[in-house]
Amino acid sequence: MNAKKPITVGLCETHLWSEISDSIVCPSDYHIFYKNRNKYGGGVVVLVRNDYVVSEVNIPQEYKDVEVCCIDLKSRDNNVRVLAYYRLPYYTATDEQYLDLSLQCFSCFISRTSSPVILMGDFNLPGVDWVHYSVPANPFYEKFIQFVYENGLLQFVSGLQDWKILLI
After folding, report:
1. What number is the average pLDDT over the span 6-16?
2. How far is CA 20 from CA 62, 79, 130, 163, in A?
3. Are 82 and 73 in contact (CB under 8 A)?
4. Strand arrangement of the beta sheet that strand 68-74 belongs to
5. Position 168 pLDDT exceeds 50
6. How far is residue 117 CA from its own chain's centroid?
7. Cβ contact 13:41 at 8 Å
8. DSSP H or E segment with residue 109
9. Does residue 22 register a pLDDT over 90?
10. Most buried by CB count within 10 Å: which residue of 61, 127, 140, 154?
11. Residues 6 or more apart from 6 whose CB is under 8 A from it?
12. CATH number among 3.40.250.10, 3.60.10.10, 3.30.390.10, 3.30.70.60, domain 8-154
């Protein structure tokens, strides 16, 4: 095991497009998986060390507009599903529809595996109190925390001082 190189890394707002070579953003000892936004900006990337078996999970057509990348990571002892996600920091009715679609998408990925799931990214919901699992009175926050409760998800990163390498 190589403790100095994380097994997997998720990146948001990658701003990649098809003309950019994978080698520019991906170290040679990693696999790269990504979902580019259909317009300028955004995008998510998952990098996985080459010494792990990994496969990309296809995004069902009904979720093609969700900015999510999903992979299954396999090791000799464990399998883990990893999702990287990004949501713009806006709170309009259209953005609420996008959040609803995103949560449906996550539910689809979670329900179709018996493996643990790591959901990482930028949800742009800075008002979540992860110590008490409470949120402001706001439909975006309320829907998100309800999803967290219903799926038994736990927050592992509460601030930059807590960032550590997760070893599986």
Report:
1. 88
2. 27, 31, 37, 29
3. yes
4. 53-56, 68-74, 79-86, 117-122
5. no
6. 10
7. yes
8. helix 93-111
9. no
10. 140
11. 49, 165, 166
12. 3.60.10.10
Strands of 44-49's sheet in order across: 8-12, 44-49, 30-35
Which tokens in the block code for residue 35?
Answer: 């979902």
Sign of the alpha-carbon dihedral angle for 150, 66, 58, 17: negative
Contact criterion met (CB below 8 Å) for 42 and 8 = no
Which residue is associated with the tokens 């829907």?
143
Closest listed residue to residue 109, CA positions, set 42, 41, 59, 49: 59
Q: Which band of pLDDT confidence, cut at 50, 70 and 90, is reported for residue 19?
A: confident
Give the 3-state secondary structure percentages of the chain, helix then strand then coil, rounded to 5: 25, 25, 50
Q: Where are the domains of the chain?
A: 8-154
The Cα-based distances of 43 to 16, 66, 104 in angstroms read 7, 10, 19
User: Count of CB atoms within 10 A of residue 51's CB?
Assistant: 12
pTM of the model: 0.88
